[in-house]
Structures are given as structure tokens and as C-alpha cells.
Design a protein that fits this description.
The longest helix is centred in the middle third of the chain and has 16 residues. By secondary structure, the protein is an alpha/beta fold. The chain has an eight-stranded parallel barrel with strand order 1-2-3-4-5-6-7-8, surrounded by seven helices. The chain has a single domain, classed as Aldolase class I (TIM Barrel, Alpha-Beta Barrel), CATH 3.20.20.70. The protein is built from ten helices and eight strands. Helix content is 45%, strand content 17%.
Length: 224
């Protein structure tokens, strides 16, 4: 896999609480330079990122209910509607982890469906990625979460926010891929800081990588 191919699978990410406008400018410049799939930012930075990405092929990804998912479905729908209005092409939403752990599948499904409904009403294609926060889940809960996300109409299932007790593992990526099959996307995110770990996630079944260390990851590929 060459540098351009690897970059095209990465969502170049800046989501920390101290993320600045200058940081977003640097993020977008790097994304355009390397040709990443998207930049992933918080809703407050969506408008600036969209402006900076204008004329490029890089998509705008905006997080919803981030980082804990502990808001209502209505709040997530409102946040999704606003993100789409600001130019989002992709929405990375955190599920109701508490509901999943309690076995309340209806609440988890309704939560995901609310964001998917906003995406389906958009005037352009908008992808929905559901963040399970796998480090907090048992294998049974991961399996259930991926299944619910697929049934609810999400486009991707995603491992982690990167803001909890752990990040992506190749084993979790492989599990999610087994559950959702080949027709749905799997995004590995959280703790992926070098080329080796990124390629391991792809080998395990990830179709997209979320990373803030994109430059290091891509530059770690030998020149063609």
C-alpha cells in the first residue's frame, strides 16, 4: 500500500477540548496535502473546516454526541441537522453506551436511527458512523452494538472515541467485521499512532482509520 492509498483511508482528526482554529487550519492543510478521506472535527469547527476544504476532495466529518453519547436521541438529531447544514459529509455519532450495557436495544436503535434520519434527509449523501466505545464493552455487547447499528441503517461501525479507557484493537476490528459483513464499513479509531498499527487495523478488516497522527502514519510508508 502506497502513501496515497493509505491516506485515502484515514479520517484526519482533531477533537481535543483545546483544539484551536489554528489547529483546524493545520489539520485541513495536511488533509488536502496528503489526500485523506476526511477531516474529523467538533461541531464548533465545522464551518471553518468546510471553508478550508472547499475545492478539495477531502470530506468533512463532524462528531455527534461526543465523547460520551449521553444525550437524548432528539439532541443528537438536532446536532446532526446543524452539522449537515454546516456542510458535514459524514457524521460520527457516539451511541448510548449505558443503554447497550443494560440490554436496552430499543434505546440504542432509536438513538442511531435519529441520526440516520437526519442524514437521509440531507440534500447530498451523508454517511453515519456509529461509535461503540469497545473498550467499555464485553464481546457480547460489541456484537450486539454492531448488529444494532447495521439494522438501524448506519453506514459504518466504529470502535472508539479515543477519549475513554482504551482505543482500537485488531481483535475488536476483526469482531466487528465478522458481525457486519463485507457490505458495511468498519472504522478503527483510538490509539493508532504509527504505520504498523494502521496497517494492522486494515488487515483486520478496517475500511477507515481515525487518527490525529496522520502525517507520521503516512510518512512511515516507504517511498514508491
Amino acid at each position: 500500500m502506497n502513501r496515497r492509498e493509505l491516506a485515502s483511508r484515514i479520517d484526519h482528526t482533531l477533537l481535543g477540548p483545546t483544539a484551536s482554529r489554528d489547529g483546524v487550519r493545520k489539520l485541513c492543510a495536511e488533509a488536502v496535502r496528503y489526500g485523506t478521506a476526511s477531516v474529523c472535527v467538533s461541531p464548533c469547527h465545522a464551518a471553518l473546516a468546510k471553508e478550508l476544504l472547499h475545492g478539495s476532495a477531502v470530506k468533512l466529518c463532524v462528531v455527534i454526541g461526543f465523547p460520551h453519547g449521553a444525550t437524548t436521541a432528539a439532541a443528537k438529531r438536532c446536532e446532526a441537522d446543524e452539522a449537515i447544514a454546516l456542510g458535514a459529509d459524514e457524521l460520527d455519532m457516539v451511541i448510548r453506551v449505558d443503554a447497550l450495557k443494560e440490554g436496552d436495544e430499543k434505546t440504542v436503535s432509536d438513538d442511531i436511527r435519529a441520526v440516520c434520519a437526519a442524514a437521509r434527509k440531507a440534500p447530498r449523501e451523508v454517511l453515519v458512523k456509529t461509535i461503540l466505545e469497545t473498550c467499555l464493552l464485553s464481546e457480547e455487547e460489541k456484537t450486539a452494538g454492531a448488529r444494532i447499528a447495521k439494522e438501524a441503517g448506519a453506514d459504518y461501525v466504529k470502535t472508539s472515541t479515543g477519549f475513554s479507557t482504551g482505543g482500537a484493537t485488531a481483535a475488536d476490528v476483526a469482531l466487528l467485521r465478522r458481525v457486519v459483513g463485507p457490505e458495511m464499513g468498519v472504522k478503527a479509531s483510538g490509539g493508532i499512532r504509527d504505520t504498523k498499527s494502521a496497517l494492522e487495523m486494515i488487515a483486520a478488516g478496517a475500511s477507515r482509520i481515525g487518527a490525529s497522527r496522520t502525517v507520521d502514519i503516512v510518512e512511515g510508508v516507504a517511498e514508491e
